[in-house]
Every structure is written in C-alpha cells, then in structure tokens.
Design goal:
The structure is a single chain. The protein is about 80% helix and about 0% strand. It has helices at about 1-30, 35-60, 65-90. The protein starts with a helix and ends with a helix.
Length: about 90
Amino acid sequence: NNMANKRNLKKMINYICSDVFSECMAASIYNGKKGDEDVKAILSSILIVHDSSIRRVSHPEPGMPKKVYYKDLKDKFNAQICEIVDQIINI
C-alpha cells in the first residue's frame, strides 16, 4: 500500500533525524562545545534535511516514476545524513 510506504518512510526519516540530533547534542556536551556556532549549524542542517525530506515524501515530482523518485529521495537523504554524521564526529 502506497500510503503505508509513505508513512514508514516518514517514520524512518523522523527516527534517523531524531537520533542524529541527539548524537550531536551528546557530542557537543561531551566535548564542552554546547552552544558552539558549529554545533548550532549542524543542528540547523539536521532540521533542514528533516523538513525537506518529509516534504518530498508527501509531494512526489510529477512525471517522474515513483520508484525512481523515492530511490532518489532515499539516496539524497542518506548522503546528507552521512555528511552530517561526519561533521558530528569532528566536533
């Protein structure tokens, strides 16, 4: 069912973003950088990735095959999250 797939994809995005956000907060506290501008920028980028990804789930691009569209969405989301995780590691 298409709606269940969208719902599951949104849940996955919510879960991953929430987890990465928590990791960033923990790393910033552990490294004594709470409130640091770099940390704020990383947290902000997590929220932006979350919002844009959730929006993309709800509004597929017209004319693009659904399977291709959702694969592209997942690939871009994964790449963005990996980039953010790399930034968190370097806090």
